[in-house]
Design a protein that fits this description.
Layout (H helix, E strand, L loop, with lengths): L1 E4 L10 E6 L3 H16 L4 H21 L3 E9 L5 E9 L7 H4 L13 H8 L2 E7 L3 E9 L9 E6 L9 E7 L4 E8 L3 H17 L5 H11 L6 E9 L2 E7 L3 E5 L4 E3 L17 E4 L5 E5 L20 H12 L6 E6 L2
Antiparallel strand pairs: 1-8, 2-3, 3-4, 4-6, 5-6, 7-16, 8-9, 9-10, 10-11, 11-14, 12-13, 12-15, 15-16
Helix pairs in contact: 1-2, 2-4, 5-6
């Protein structure tokens, strides 16, 4: 197996940074953070200038139009080990009345000469926007060093609690020939010790991945007894067959355009309390996606108010759910898998 996404911690990771965009100074901070990532990963000057312009415009849109806006900038490995910059914005509304119009090149809701979301889409290798009027919006854009990218089958986000730089939530996604495995850990509490527990869980999984989620979870449970522990969930997906084992309060969902059904975890704290570890089997309907998230997202999000969300890019799905259900008073983590 190989890791598709390295365990993400939105902390001292030099390649990942959340920035709250609630005043005009944050626009410059976003541009500066983007330029630093672009320079670090060797983007040529012309491409870096295009991406920096897109980052600035996205940040300006958040400042001018959104409530509780935030931007994530992170560098990831694209095809042929080429770097790619991912730009994700989320906010708490008011949303776009006409998403199609907002994405047209040259369109400006403020009547200004800003380049607009349409131009961001033109400059990006991939760009998509999802908006729930009066609730939230999320934008995802990817900018490659060279043209071309492969649509991902999975994606995830982590965000630290307000006031912390290290995140106690982490995830890993691994792939073999025909199987995906996702692991999420919510380290107990917040800050560096919670982050250390989450990293230990990811290290254990990546060192020796097994086929059965229950076996993986058992190993992680033993590994975390030297940490403060946490909630852990392991999901294996092969075709339309899902196998799941969870310990603690990681939420796991099979999400379609018409339904949301949960997968069962058992009570406990990995590393400290586990009377039994059980594995459950589920059938995944065609067109469904699977979602794992920590209690940094409320489970009360209403899939019925999110038309056609399951048809979108997994990273955009994760961003929308974080925008709609994220809790700023807790670390938050979410993973989305598309069979």
């Amino acid at each position: 197996m190989v890791a598709l996404n390295a365990p993400l911690t939105a902390s001292a990771d030099a390649d990942s940074r959340w920035i709250r965009v609630e005043d005009v100074s944050a626009v410059a901070a976003c541009r500066s953070a983007g330029q630093a990532l672009l320079t670090r990963h060797g983007f040529p000057a012309a491409r870096a200038a295009e991406v920096a312009l897109a980052v600035t415009e996205a940040a300006s849109n958040l400042y001018k139009h959104a409530r509780q806006g935030a931007m994530l900038l992170r560098a990831v490995q694209a095809h042929a080990q080429q770097p790619m910059l991912e730009l994700i914005t989320i906010d708490s509304g008011p949303g776009f009345r006409d998403v199609s119009a907002a994405m047209r090149d040259g369109h400006s809701t403020a009547g200004t000469l800003g380049i607009g979301l349409g131009a961001i889409r033109r400059l990006a290798d991939f760009c998509d926007l999802y908006s729930l009027s009066g609730v939230c919006s999320a934008l995802v854009a990817r900018f490659g060093l060279k043209p071309g990218w492969n649509a991902p089958a999975c994606a995830g986000l982590v965000r630290p609690i307000s006031g912390e730089t290290e995140c106690g939530d982490a995830f890993a996604v691994l792939r073999s020939d025909d199987r995906l495995m996702a692991v999420m850990c919510d380290g107990l509490g917040h800050g560096p010790l919670a982050a250390a527990a989450a990293r230990a869980a990811m290290d254990e999984v990546l060192a020796e991945p097994d086929r059965e989620p229950a076996a993986v979870l058992t190993r992680v449970h033993h590994r975390l007894n030297r940490t403060r522990g946490g909630a852990v969930a392991v999901l294996s997906l092969e075709g339309n067959a899902a196998r799941f084992a969870g310990l603690g309060n990681i939420a796991a969902w099979i999400l379609t355009s018409e339904s949301r059904s949960g997968m069962l975890s058992v009570p406990g704290i990995a590393g400290h309390q586990a009377r039994t570890i059980r594995q459950f089997d589920y059938n995944v309907p065609a067109g469904a996606v699977l979602v794992l998230h920590s209690d940094g997202l409320s489970s009360r999000w209403d899939y019925r108010s999110m038309p056609a969300l399951t048809d979108r890019d997994p990273l955009l799905i994760a961003a929308v759910l974080l925008a709609a259900a994220g809790v700023h008073r807790d670390d938050a983590g979410i993973v989305v898998l598309r069979p």
